[in-house]
Amino acid sequence: MASASSPAPVRVRFCPSPTGNPHVGLVRTALFNWAFARHHGGTLVFRIEDTDAARDSEQSYEQLLDSMRWLGFDWDEGPEVGGPHAPYRQSQRMDIYADVADKLLEAGHAYRCYCTAEELEERREAARKAGRPSGYDGQCRDLTAERIAAYEAEGRSSIVRFRMPDGPITFTDLVRGELTFTPENVTDYGIVRANGAPLYTLVNPVDDALMEITHVLRGEDLLSSTPRQIALYRALAEIGVGGGLVPAFGHLPYVMGEGNKKLSKRDPQSSLNLYRERGFLPEGLLNYLSLLGWSLSADQDVFSIEEMVAAFDIDGVNANPARFDLKKAEAINADHIRMLDVKAFIEACGPWLQAPHAPWAPERFDAAAFEELAPLAQTRLTVLSDITANVDFLFLAEPVTDEASWVKAMKPGADALLATARAKLAEAEWAAEPLKEAVLAAGEEHGLKLGKAQAPVRVAVTGRTVGLPLFESLEVLGRERTLARIDAALAKLAA
């Protein structure tokens, strides 16, 4: 056991279950563990809790690994990396858990409980009516050999329960300070099912002990299980499982969604895939998630992951619930998009310029044309998927049909303005500034300022009332296609 004067090197773990698409609360937990390990030069153990055969799937397991890679997290021990405590999937460690359960039974730290579900509920209901705590009442704690034999003769099955100590358990939470749990509120609990399958309550602390975890940073929803696990860590030390270290605990604040409710997997905005599909940058999403319970400084919301790692420590985490604000997440992601160099931005846009996202035929895509407008697009995107609608006018044979934009721009007199603008554009030098002057002059002939004059031109050429700077767009689109689209719009207005 490490001494107080020479603390053990930091070892943290991230141990999700492969049960569907990762959610942002899980990602926030992974981020804080990863940043804590990197800040302290420690070790991140990536462990898969896949003992629930009914809910776990190989597809979800692969999705977890893919998500971790996309987010930019690396791990020092775990799947695909290995390590001294392999295997790192709990489904492959069943013999270990069975052996530990046997040792706990033999040492008297656990016992077999023969109570049926009906008996347990009947006694709980009676306790509730009497105003007493309704946890397990210790019925099978000290069964005689005769009573055990009688139960088994009846054909009763048994689970294994851990025997909690009789005194209170006090520990210092790294986020919430000193906490005390009294025995009546932390009763004996199951660690092995009747069919012999180990429960989370056993496997999680056993793996922590064997993998020498020094700090457990996890969600607040698991706080009530901490005294049970501390008692189990101590029992494991007595029977020689692990190095005898009880980890320090830090319980991260809830992430709240709409209606002041905890963000759950069922909330659409909790899905990590949603953010990937919309084109969030990993660094933008992680920057925002880091703010759910922590901050770099009072006046800086936007920072790099390297800046976070340099500054992050668990004592800076706030215990108060954090509210998920999608608009703020988008704003921070937009800042990160603008922080990319142009080459990186162009590369990041790649998936949204191809099928299935792009509505144009692949052969119509012109990389050189896109690269000309990319710096202008970069300043306007909130998420990368926005790029498709911003540049589709370049690569579609005809502009998109957006009826609301058409109605808004093509007011009475738009045909005359368009005809004048077309004539002046046809004579102009084909560069952004001369094109602007041409439309400005057309507007002046019709008593319109530039903003009003360019609106019908924009909709005729791009199909939308908003988009990239118009005259730079016309320059890249070219004279022939620009004039042809204005002609098509004039024909539609005349019909």
Automatic annotation (TrEMBL):
Keyword Ligase listed: yes
EC number: 6.1.1.17
Motif 'KMSKS' region: chain residues: 262-266
Swiss-Prot/TrEMBL cofactor(s): Zn(2+)
Residues the record lists as binding ATP: K265
Record-linked InterPro entries: aa-tRNA-synth_I_cd-bd, aa-tRNA-synth_I_codon-bd_sub2, aa_tRNA-synth_I_cd-bd_sf, Glu-tRNA-ligase_bac/mito, Glu/Gln-tRNA-synth, Glu/Gln-tRNA-synth_Ib_cat-dom, GluQ/Sye, GluRS_core
Note on how the cofactor is bound: Binds 1 zinc ion per subunit.
Protein name per UniProt: Glutamate--tRNA ligase
Species of origin: Streptomyces coffeae
Gene name of the record: gltX
